[in-house]
Amino acid sequence: MQKTILITGCSSGIGYDTAHYLHQNGYRVFASARKSEDVQHLKDEGLDAYLLDVTKPESIQETLKSILKLTDGKLYAVFNNAGYGQPGAVEDITTDVLREQFETNLFGLHEVTRQVIPIMREQGYGRIIQHSSVLGLISLRFRGAYNASKYAIEGLCDTLRLELDKDDIHVVTINTGPVHSDFRKNATKKYYEHIDGRPTVFEEEYKKELLPYEGKKKDDPFTKESDVVMTNIINALESRRPNPRYYNTSATHILGTLKRLLPTSILDKILLRV
Q1: Is-catalytic flag, 146?
Q2: Domains, the chain, ranges and CATH?
């Protein structure tokens, strides 16, 4: 039987590439995006695509209802990929901006997960793949909102994995490091939307450390193409007992290992130089 998967956040980057990769490898993919023009683009490329805003529970419900009509009520997997990064120092991020970050990165992921669990429990199996980050393992300056949202995903997934231990529903966390995509470009837009032009002691450091990332060179040894994620996605979907967590990119492996081995004070000194 053909395996089915719902993927959120397919307008670009890892979500887009994963949707096409799985489609080409025999999966029935239901790609989704928040903007109608992105949905149409996905359809034009031969994918089943749906308008889905993860911050709106009714949008999730309607999309799942449409998908289940086509699959005899079954859904093998979901890849909660939708998310973005809000740059800025913690003191420069208003509570409303932090809440907006959490609405997509955490609360949206949580709502999709809540809605698919009853489907998977009734059918007796399923895979829930949650897209975290290397910044769910370690923290970097000026990434506080994003760090916090990804750390929260880690705790949510670790708890959910324990709660679903008696069910054949596997919860897998994907920790991705720097990958060539529109992520940095979109994060820069959020900087200009919410941070730029406001009084801050970090103005010069923003110009030096944040804004250059938009044009980061293709030959950066730590930034990889999104295909580094695909092997782990396949493992998460097809392994009889998938790992609870998969690291993507050498940066994730290095920093994740340092987090486990080093005292916090020493790790902080290293991260201040990253």
Answers
A1: yes
A2: 4-249 (3.40.50.720)
